[in-house]
Amino acid sequence: MTSKNNLEKFMYLTFMAFTTAITVITLIGVFAGDEIISYSTFYVNGGVSLTAIVQILVLAVITALINIIFDSESLVAKVRVLYLTLIKLFLILLIATAFIFIFKWFPVDEVYAWISFVAMFLVCFIIATIASVLVTRKKDKEYEEMLTKYKERAGKK
């Protein structure tokens, strides 16, 4: 893969992770109301804090880097996709957990907070996975159409 393709993939993955996380965090804030301000450092009066947005962006960048590293052709050829996905999921969860402790995103001694985090993480992961599958299917269809057109042209020569 060329460096241009890697940069495009990095930007896309960062955008998807960041947008999904910010959307979910914002929706939680809308439904929870002002009560959540005292519960999580994500929220301030009027919405999501700028500090939290930057933290989520950094986490999205790290997530994109992990995905690019583990989606490299050399690894994909040697390791099952399921194992790569599980390793990526574990690493991202580990880093997100570190962010929770470092930035005090929520009270770490509350079970409900962890249940909410896991639920939110899974929602984000599922949305990102669905988006990735849809993009892959669209590209596969485009490639199949191009291959069909190429075969038709090659047969006419």
Automatic annotation (TrEMBL):
<keyword id="KW-0812">Transmembrane</keyword>
<protein>
    <submittedName>
        <fullName>Membrane protein DedA with SNARE-associated domain</fullName>
    </submittedName>
</protein>
<feature type="transmembrane region" description="Helical">
    <location>
        <begin position="82"/>
        <end position="106"/>
    </location>
</feature>
<feature type="transmembrane region" description="Helical">
    <location>
        <begin position="52"/>
        <end position="70"/>
    </location>
</feature>
<keyword id="KW-0472">Membrane</keyword>
<feature type="transmembrane region" description="Helical">
    <location>
        <begin position="12"/>
        <end position="32"/>
    </location>
</feature>
<keyword id="KW-1133">Transmembrane helix</keyword>
<feature type="transmembrane region" description="Helical">
    <location>
        <begin position="112"/>
        <end position="136"/>
    </location>
</feature>
